[in-house]
Amino acid sequence: MHRRWLAIVAVLLIIQAAGLTWHLARGASPVTHPASSTIESQTIPATIGVAERKDVPVYLTGLGTVQAFNTITVKVRVDGEIDKIAFTEGQDVKAGDVLAQIDPRPFQASLDLAQATRAKDQAQLENAKLDLQRYQKAGPLANTQQQIDTQAALVRQLEATLQADQANIESAQVQLDYTTIKAPLSGRTGVRLLDQGNIVHATDTTGLVVITQLQPISVVFTLPQDQLQEVMHAMTSTSSPLKVFAQGRGNQQQLGEGQLALVDNLIDQTTGSVHLKATFPNTDYALWPGQYVNIRLLLDVRKDSTIVPSVAVQSGPQGNFVYVVKADKTVEARTVTVALTQANQSAIGTGLQVGEVVVTDGQDKLKNGATVETRSPTGTSKTSQSTAPRSNAAPTS
Hints:
5 helices; 38% strand; 4 domains; alpha+beta; CATH 2.40.50.100
């Protein structure tokens, strides 16, 4: 009897558990709520931009190093003692300015001696010419022909001596001029390498000072060899030199505008790059020798291009596309071709017209036909404004 009751209780518990399980399963079944349809139909906030018609510059970029246009170490060319230093370190000098003076007295004495020797030989020549004239006037009756020929030879000899004396004078004058050390070019002096009172020699390896020409100034930069043909084509297609812009390392400040002066005649095989040189006026001394700068080489300007912010262009299985906002605030995914991307802007080749509105932020939540609440890049709502394309929009060329 006890076992029978236990069996009955067990059966009741099983029935009760089965009923509870069925109830829970029924209560957990999905129920469609009206709110879900509201979520699907709600507007999605998105930032927009407008396709514009602009001229797009085409740049090639590279890293460059500033070099002095000319660098010269000023050295002495004669031996002697430095009497005077006529410049200060870091001074801007012009070609021909006096930098230093070497004791000129020994060289002045050599010049005086050469001039005196020439005067002596000049007097001998004049006397020899007079004798020759007397011999020739008297004729062969008073003098032998040999005497006349000998006197004529003496005149020619003294004339040659006089020419040698003149050469000695010029050489002495040059040596004297070398005692005054002048700037060979315009530029800025560096650290003075010699002091007043030093004995210098023409064979010394140490110079007096280094002068660097800063106006104009050069920048040497590199480009990949794959871009060489673009540069050569741009150079041959225009009669004016290509423009080059130098910027700071952060690209926040333009340091100068110059012109392309040289494309090297060989490619560096170790790096696969080609060296180019640009010349800058550097009127404000913004460029300094040894400085690293970012270079932008202007190849071309594409006129009347259709421009959108680069962030508006998305990549998909079928290629690049943008979300275009239509007049009813719905979006359309439209395939486009990108002709060029420069400075966070993309030039659209086909697929978009000037004046059409595109989504620049929030594309990850969008799909074809979605309704958007448009906002400007500053966050201002544009729901009250029309996003329809302008009626006078022209197709891109």
